[in-house]
């Protein structure tokens, strides 16, 4: 039952998707708890796209820092 990353890559350890209760935060607000790690990349990409679009529509400069890991 221990799956680290799709598509069903098995990992060794005690961390399991069903018991990790780390929240997904936006500023000081909890957006999802527990965070769905399998959908995290999609959530980050959608947020980044919306963030950039709003800045461009408002003719405002933006800075988006997205660490690779």
Description:
- The structure is a single chain.
- With 69 residues, the protein is of the alpha+beta class.
- It has one domain.
- Helix content is 26%, strand content 17%.
- The chain is built from 1 helix and 4 strands, in the order E-E-E-E-H.
- The protein has a two-stranded antiparallel sheet with strand order 1-2. Strands 3-4 form a two-stranded antiparallel ribbon.
- Strand 1 (3-5) and strand 2 (9-10) form a beta hairpin.
- The chain is elongated and about 50 Å long.
Distance between the termini: 24 Å
Helix percent band: 25-40%
Return Rg in Å: 15 Å
Can you write the helix and strand succession as a string?
EEEEH
- Which segments are poorly predicted (pLDDT under 50) over 5 or more consecutive residues? none
Strand arrangement in the largest pleated sheet: 1-2
Instruction: Give the total of domains.
Output: 1
Largest sheet: 2 strands, antiparallel
Instruction: Specify the overall morphology.
Output: elongated
Specify the number of helices.
Answer: 1
Query: Would you tell me the structural class of the helices and strands?
Result: alpha+beta
Number of strands: 4
Name the quaternary structure.
single chain
Mean pLDDT: 80
Percent in strands:
15-25%
């Amino acid at each position: 039952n221990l799956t680290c990353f799709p598509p069903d890559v098995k990992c060794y350890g005690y961390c399991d998707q069903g018991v990790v209760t780390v929240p997904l935060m936006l500023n000081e607000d909890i957006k999802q708890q527990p965070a769905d790690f399998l959908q995290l990349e999609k959530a980050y990409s959608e947020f980044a796209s919306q963030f950039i679009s709003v800045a461009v529509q408002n003719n405002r400069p933006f800075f988006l820092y997205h660490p690779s890991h």
